[in-house]
Amino acid sequence: MAYDDSYKFKKVISIGIVSELTGLSQRQIRYYEERKLIFPDRSKGIRKYSFADVEQLMDIANKREEGVTTREIRNEMTKEIRQKMLQGQMNAHFRFRA
Amino acid sequence: MAYDDSYKFKKVISIGIVSELTGLSQRQIRYYEERKLIFPDRSKGIRKYSFADVEQLMDIANKREEGVTTREIRNEMTKEIRQKMLQGQMNAHFRFRA
DNA sequence: CGTGTAAGGAATTCTGACACG
DNA sequence: CGTGTAAGGAATTCTGACACG
């Protein structure tokens, strides 16, 4: 982890390939971006995704199938981020203690 | 290794991005393919590269700068493959021996 | 709300060729 | 041999909108 991570987070994949990889339509992928569930980079207006984005989209697809709305998914994401930031603070505090 | 490898070897990157990543021109990248140094997949005629291909291209770029010809690079690659196949046979023979 | 589709335009990629050397 | 470039065409992607619900 952390070195090969470059691959996972590098935004290099265009939407057509992401569509093939996830099974989602390009319309769906763009809509999830509109709903702030996914954040591709842009290269001259053209969206570029990472493998991490692809994974994220597969999670979204699963939740949507279960009937979870984009708003709910968005809320869950926000919570998870909150958790991770807290975790980060905890680590900063106790790393050299225990 | 082996699980996250999926990212490294998945052919999902188009030539424009590969060009940005490697600093090579599209012309050069296509030429190295013509010389059998690199083997992208095709999606409706459009070349798709993996991160492994990108690394390979950076190696090629370095060798070219040193004045190594594409033919020589090709020969070196062939030798390396030969080595690895031999290594594979060795492993198959002695894995459960030592 | 979530997704499909037709529409017109902009950006990307492809090949074969000519050029230089 | 290795790489640049102009040329014309094909495939991709983009946005805003209408549709259904």
From TrEMBL, chains A, B:
Q: PROSITE patterns given for it?
A: HTH_MERR_2
Q: What region holds the HTH merR-type domain?
A: 12-55
Source species, domain of life = Bacteria
**What are the transmembrane regions?**
none
Q: Name one GO molecular function term.
A: DNA binding
Task: Write the record's keywords in alphabetical order, separated by commas.
Answer: DNA-binding, Repressor, Transcription, Transcription regulation
InterPro entries given in the database record: DNA-bd_dom_put_sf, MerR-type_HTH_dom, MerR_fam
Which Gene3D superfamilies would you find in this protein's record? 1.10.1660.10
**What's a Pfam family this protein contains?**
MerR_1
The name of this protein is: DNA-binding transcriptional MerR regulator
